[in-house]
Specification:
CATH architecture of the domain at 22-71 and 88-125: 2-Layer Sandwich
Strand content: 25-35%
Largest sheet: 4 strands, antiparallel
Shape: globular
Number of strands: 6
Helix content: 25-40%
Order of helices and strands: HEEEHEEHHE
Distance between the termini: 32 Å
CATH class of the domain at 22-71 and 88-125: Alpha Beta
Radius of gyration: 16 Å
Number of helices: 4
Oligomer: single chain
Length: 139
């Protein structure tokens, strides 16, 4: 499994240029590093470092109208690469693209991101738009 922790300029431009007025539902798939060592020598689990990210970023996320709409853990892979095992899966909702962009530009959020960068071995961050719930898989 290739490791993905951040995005590049082209990916962000493509993400930003999607024209959609619905709230953003960001599907997060996260694999933690077993242990991490901070520059000051502090050692902890990747999960605990990610908890630091969560605690520091939560007030910023909430102030922008963000909320977690679903959280779960992977139990087994039925369809897909067997080497993709995720420690944490969740969907974060943002009211709109501007809210998400404001968050990632916020200096306090960028400081909190240092915990995420050290904690995460690899991840996927997928922008989705919510649809009406239906009675079957397709509708």
């Amino acid at each position: 499994m290739m490791d993905y922790v951040g995005f590049d300029g082209e990916q962000f431009r493509n993400f930003r240029d999607v024209q959609d007025d619905r709230p953003l539902h960001m599907l997060n798939l996260v694999k933690f590093r077993e242990t991490v060592t901070y520059p000051d020598g502090t050692v902890m689990s990747g999960r605990d470092a990610y908890r630091n990210y969560g605690r520091e970023s939560a007030p910023i996320f909430a102030a922008l109208g963000g909320r977690i709409v679903w959280r779960g853990e992977q139990l087994a892979m039925l369809i897909g690469p067997s080497d993709e095992q995720w420690d944490l899966c969740f969907i974060a909702e943002y009211p709109n693209l501007d809210a998400f962009c404001s968050m990632i530009k916020n200096p306090d959020y960028r400081k909190a991101m240092e915990h995420r960068q050290i904690a995460v071995k690899t991840s996927r961050l997928i922008r989705t738009g919510p649809l009406e719930l239906g009675a079957n898989f397709a509708d």
